[in-house]
Amino acid sequence: MRPEILLLGSGWVPQVDKVLERDYVCHRLAAVAPADRDAFIERVAPGVRGVFTTGVTGIDAALADRLPKLEIVAVHGVGVDAVAFDALDPRGILVTNTPDVLTEDVADLAVSLLLASSRRIPQLDRHVRAGDWEAKKPLQPARSLRGKVAGIVGLGRIGRAVATRLESFGMAIRYFQRSTADCLYPRSASLPDLARESDYLIVCAPGGAATRAMIDADVLDALGPEGTLVNIARGSLVDEAALIAALQEGRLGAAALDVFADEPRVPAALRELDNVVLTPHVGSFTVETRTAMGMLAAANLEAHFAGKPLPTRVLG
Ligand code: DGY
């Protein structure tokens, strides 16, 4: 008999859906109207042995507690900050994620955002579309990257991939994280120091309690009116109110953001600012990477139900 799984969220490719439909009895929470979700969970909960979820959705303690037979949570994403390990660990429920397969594409997006911001691509696009070029309206020049300093917050797999790319633009790389990384780049003594020493601060650290709002008003002020914040990690790392205030008051030069504190809600104040580039949490959103992520998440479920070692288990 096929095991029953509960699918939370969306964003994986159809090919992955086909594999899941073939191998499991799938219950899809996203397909249920919000008002009916409680009754739906009540009905399917007794049979659910696995959860397939996204990095942003994760699984909270309230839902996990309603699934008495839950054995495994397969996260389609690398970040597991939305997973309630406190509720899962005491019950021995396994958690897997999809590291490595998304590193290069997420790093590409970080660099795309940095370039879009420094070369003012969205502003130029608006300029052309509005007919301002033909009308010979004045344009503000962009800034070169060569010789500038990129400060990487969190030099893990994605942070390193970003650093490698930015080195090829002639930028100097610095980093900060609590532990010293085994690498050639200089480590700043603190996060405000890194911000002070950088022209671009690129947030690549994981989300969760330990990093919540670490990019605060002090860090933003240290980055300064010529500085740019790039965030491709989690919105929770940035104090969004402090960021908006710093941008509005000209204490921070610019921001390029793929992630937000309360997705998909993006504060109107951010949307109104001209010196901000916004994308809707799409670091891993390419056909190739989403296919690889989905297949890896499915492979973790398959290994579990076949009694084999999990390819990418996360320890809580
Ligand atoms: C990840 O993999 O963590 C992405 O940010 C999607 O959640």
From TrEMBL:
Residue intervals of the D-isomer specific 2-hydroxyacid dehydrogenase NAD-binding domain: 112-283
Keyword NAD listed: yes
D-isomer specific 2-hydroxyacid dehydrogenase catalytic domain residues are 25-314
> Per its UniProt record, what PANTHER family does this chain match?
2-HYDROXYACID DEHYDROGENASE YGL185C-RELATED, 2-HYDROXYACID DEHYDROGENASE-RELATED
**Keywords tagged on the record:** NAD, Oxidoreductase
Is Cytoplasm one of the keywords UniProt gives this record?
no
Gene3D superfamilies with a match to the protein in the record: NAD(P)-binding Rossmann-like Domain
Which species is this record about?
A: Massilia suwonensis
The record's listing under SUPFAM superfamilies reads: Formate/glycerate dehydrogenase catalytic domain-like (SSF52283), NAD(P)-binding Rossmann-fold domains (SSF51735)
Indicate what this protein is called per its UniProt record.
Answer: 2-hydroxyacid dehydrogenase
Renumbered to this chain, the signal peptide range is none
Superkingdom to which the source organism belongs? Bacteria
Query: What family does the Swiss-Prot or TrEMBL record give for this protein?
Result: Belongs to the D-isomer specific 2-hydroxyacid dehydrogenase family.
A Pfam cross-reference name: 2-Hacid_dh
